[in-house]
Amino acid sequence: MLRVGADRDDAAEAGTVVTPSAEFPPLGDEERAALGRIGERWRGPRRADDLPVDPTLGRHDRHPAPTRFGRLAPIDMFTVAQPDELVATGAADLPGDRAGRTAARVRRALLGPPLSSASVLYERMRKLVALPVLSSDLLSSVAYGPEAMLAVLVLAGSTALGLALPLAAVLVVLMVAVGLSYRQTIPAYPHGAGSYIVAGDNLGRTPGLAAAAGLMLDYVLTVSVSVAAGVHAVTSALPGLSSWAVPLGVLVIAVLLAGNLRGVRTAGNIFVLPTYAFVVVLLAVLAVGYAKAAARGFAPVPPPSVPAAEGLGLLLVLRAFSSGAVSMTGIEAVSNAVPAFRPTEWRNARTTLGWMVAMLVTLFASLVGLIHLDGLVPRADETLLSQLGRVTFPSGPGYAILQATTALILLLAANTAFNDFPRLLFFMARDGHAPRRFLHMGDRLAFSNGLVALALTAAAVFVAFGGHTERLIPLYAVGVFLAFTLSQTGMVVHWRRHRGPGWRRRLALNAAGAALSGLVLLTAAVAKFTEGAWVVVLAVPLLVLLFRRIHRHYARLHHALALHPPPSAPPAEGDELPQQVRHLVVVPVARLNRASLRALAYATSLGRPTLAVHLAPEEAEADRFREQWRAWGDHLRLETIVSPYRSVIGPLAHYLEALHAASPDLTLTVIVPEVVLRRRRYRLLHSRAEQRLRVALRALPGVVVTSVPVHVS
User: Fold this and answer.
1) Whether pTM exceeds 0.85
2) Composition bias, kind Basic and acidic residues: at what positions (predicted)?
3) Which of 6-15, 355-364, 467-476 is least confident?
4) 274, 281 Cβ separation under 8 angstroms
5) In terms of CB atoms within 10 Å, which of 45, 107, 142, 370 comes out highest?
6) DSSP assignments along 225-238, one per residue
7) CB atoms within 10 A of CB 466
């Protein structure tokens, strides 16, 4: 057995389901039993160990020798692990051609050398690293959440800004309730307590998929909004860069993608310092700002007069409340990423979540209070945090440091989504609701396909909305609070089913979180529907429908390929035993040369009935080819097909289809000679008939297309 990856994976023993082996699920009991029954009837042509070559490659005394094409480098490709096992070294992954090796070197220079599968346990994060990595989205939202709330209130004039304090108090209660609810969710689902898993386990598949759709939209918008807000912070300090906002944002997304492709631990080390720096600088701003307010007896500075553009009503207040609620996006990040923590995973995750919520409440409430005391109002040309920095640090480097750290954390806040979005796709793909390629771990044990999908989608959204934060915010709250609501409702059902000690208290806490989250969800969906929330309201059911269609496809595929083939399967593809397979080998021959004779020799060596087929554009060429065939010796049955319209692939495919229809239980093996050229630049000079034939016959059951290569230097 050849096992790629240096050592056995110990991650499963550590209690996590996120392992490189997830791409290869084990057989169920029913399939194992069926496999045993099939094996009892299996009759092969020879003994299993009767091979013309030593499969161990002489593991103890010699190495593979290079060929003249350089396909096999003279290196030790395999190391001995166990008596019956070979293990590929990292060098075995290098491509054989020069262009491929160059691309591999560039990739390794950017992303680092590949990591062994056994390193998955050591790629996890400790609490001090996980806190800034997973909280960057949550903590960075205080840079635009209060402003989003005040930007709606100021539409009713300066006098409406006084409602900011009571609205902030309600939001703090919501933050604490949802935070405590998720703290209960983590130990209940220690292998990853994402909303998708919790809602699907307790409420059913459709609510789980709805929660997943909401989270996916939230993660995409997290990247877009965070990058847009970060670029806005940069252009507030450097107005000359305003025209370059969109290219700068796309560049930042590309840098984030490259950093996360280097692996969880490396990305964490890269993004630790900006988050901690932002928290420290913001605490300094609050300390200095409140000290100045204390010096004047905490008397609020009157805000500048702003005329009312709308009347102050319930709908406006609800819109302001839902806009301020975007400060909570990212609060679920820790519960989704429990497997990314070091053991004991759930305990470290719960502690980290507690720290995050405490920091969020402190920063959000303090910022809203200080903005009120300093009499600041939202402006189109400058962020509120920038105004607060100018008031707090009128001279010295304080303002520049605040803007720099704010821009950094806003730009890097998207890293939270880069951690959770691929992990969500992993769990969905494991259940068959997303493409299975999202189960694959890349060279650095990161979910590379999920990372690339997130980066491309977020970049498209960012460009489509021109990098404007205010245009993206209305889309933001609906998806995440849909996930919050379904997750907390699912936990209510969970506690009712598993009535352990204190289950009533836990149920009441999750019920409160579900009710408050549902209130915000309805408020955001109704109040911001015409501002863009309709996009999310429409996208969620469409995504759920897409996920269900993907699951249906995989279910049909599994049923068709399982070890108990369905009665409706074609006989030629339903056979499981060698003695049940009836062969006909077909060799298309265009002209008699070394390539076609090699294909004919290979086909005859299989010891199965063999038929040669020649397609001619006219009768004269068909007669000429039959004369050449007789000169060769007429060793095989030849069938000539005249194609007066000079088409080759179509008539050949229809002929093979007719052969298959005449005997559906027959397995047709089509052997095509293929000329392999060493130089890539000459490949455009040759047709790839074997590839076109394979595509034409792909939908035909019971047909196997293979090629016999003839190498030309």
Assistant:
1) no
2) 1-11, 29-50
3) 6-15
4) no
5) 142
6) HHHHHHHHHHHHH-
7) 12
Rounded to whole angstroms, the Cα distance separating 700 from 696 reads 8
Residue 516 carries which side chain, given as an amino acid letter? Answer: L
In the beta sheet, which residues pair with residue 4?
88
417, amino acid identity: A
Helix, strand, coil % over all residues of the chain, rounded to 5? 65, 10, 25
pLDDT tens-digit series, residues 561-599: 666 644 444 455 555 566 667 778 889 888 787 788 888
21 within 8 A of 120, measured Cβ to Cβ: no
> CA 408 to CA 273: how far, in whole Å?
10
194-222, pLDDT tens digit by residue? 788 888 889 989 999 999 998 898 888 88
Both tokens of residue 610? 């063999």
CA distance 226 to 297: 36
Q: In the numeric block, which tokens belong to residue 100?
A: 């491929």
pLDDT tens, residue by residue, 321-340: 888 887 887 788 788 778 77
Residues 609-648 have pLDDT tens digits of 888 888 888 888 888 888 888 888 888 888 888 877 667 7
3-state SS string for 48-98? CCCCCCCCCCCCCCCCCCCCCCCCCCCCCCEEEEECCEEEECHHHHCCCCH
Which helix (DSSP H) or strand (DSSP E) does residue 253 occupy?
helix 245-261
Residue with tokens 């979180």: 513
DSSP 341: B
Which helix (H) or strand (E) segment is 587 a member of? strand 582-588
